[in-house]
Amino acid sequence: MVNPIIRGAVLALALLPGIAGAKPLDQMFPADRLGALGPTTREFLGRFDYQQGTVRIGTGYAEAEVGGDFYFLGSFDARSVLEDVWGNPPDDTVLGMIFPARYLPVDQESWGIAITYEPMGHVSDADAASYDYTEMLADMKASVRDENDWRRDNGYGTIELVGWAAEPRYDTANHKLYWAEELFFEGAPGNTLNYNIRVLGRKGVLNLNFIADMSALPEIEAAMPAVLEMVAFTPGNRHEEFDPATDQVAEASIGSLISGGGMAEAGLAIAALVLLKKFWFVLLLPLIWLKNLFTGRRNS
Known about the structure:
10 strands; 7-stranded antiparallel β-sheet; disordered N terminus
């Protein structure tokens, strides 16, 4: 018999307003996929708003054109996946996530793209073609090794930057920077993929961080053209609309977005995402429902 408290929590969640244009679970995935799920998992996934089409990001300074091969989860649903399902520490900067439509968020082989925004100011791309990425990689490897003493002293596992999984590239016309690092976390069963896209805007940078293991690299590489086209700043917020008379110039450069920002995103939180992306979360679903119900988090 279903616990009446859990039943009440599920009913209350079902009555909360959804996102206009979003698809319910049974319209997003075929019946044979959903039939293989346990009832608790299906109910959990059924409360998400699976969005496609034109999706607003943040307060509207950016948009994603999400085609049929992908779906978007807003901030609340994305955080539920990251924190409740994949074991990531709480992060209220997550604006949403993009997933390939072939996967449910609970599939062991699933991957997703977490979106955040850093209002750091206007990043110049004038020097984008001037970097030696072989030299940069050597410096980044040394920096990661140097930080391992601190990690050991504070009870954390060490990290090794194995190399580029995809050497940095910059799309001058669309002001998009992308690259991938292969990492090894002490105690992990395999290497971790840290694939990054940075979309330069008028007043800041959109961060698109792929959460995946190395086995997903071929899929991600195949999806990159579509993903790069998908997300963009809206008119008035685009890189080429920078006004030097009024807009702040960022201290960051193209190089520092890679050598500094990339490794910052590849810290202990990524390790948790990879190592805790298991099916243990099903046991916690009743607690997750009640927590979300009474804290009132919804998509933003």
